[in-house]
Design brief:
94 residues; flat; mainly alpha; Arc Repressor Mutant, subunit A
Length: 94
């Protein structure tokens, strides 16, 4: 299976790419998709950075500025981090 390696925003939609390739949109999406394990590790790293900054006493706004994200994205990262921590804690006690 061929997958994308470039970590950048695409300038063409899946529909446009499919038209160029003469394939379906689904095939175009699959060809340019980031591998799931890479996405998950990148997401975990972002959550870790956000949690560390929050534990240091930074506000959501400061974290957003530091990480180049919106305040809402920081809130989502921290929410997801709490959710993942609770899931791991629940699995450890089971």
């Amino acid at each position: 299976m061929v997958s994308a390696r470039a970590q950048q925003r695409r300038e063409v939609t899946a529909r446009e790419l499919a038209a160029r390739l003469g394939s379906s949109e689904r095939t175009a999406r699959r060809l340019v998709a980031e591998p799931r394990d890479e996405f998950l590790s990148r997401a975990a790293a972002k959550r870790k950075i956000a949690v560390e900054l929050r534990e240091q006493g930074h506000t959501y706004s400061e974290i957003a500025t530091t990480m180049g994200l919106s305040i809402g994205s920081v809130g989502k990262l921290l929410h997801d981090a709490r959710k993942h921590a609770a899931t791991k804690q629940g699995q450890a006690s089971a």
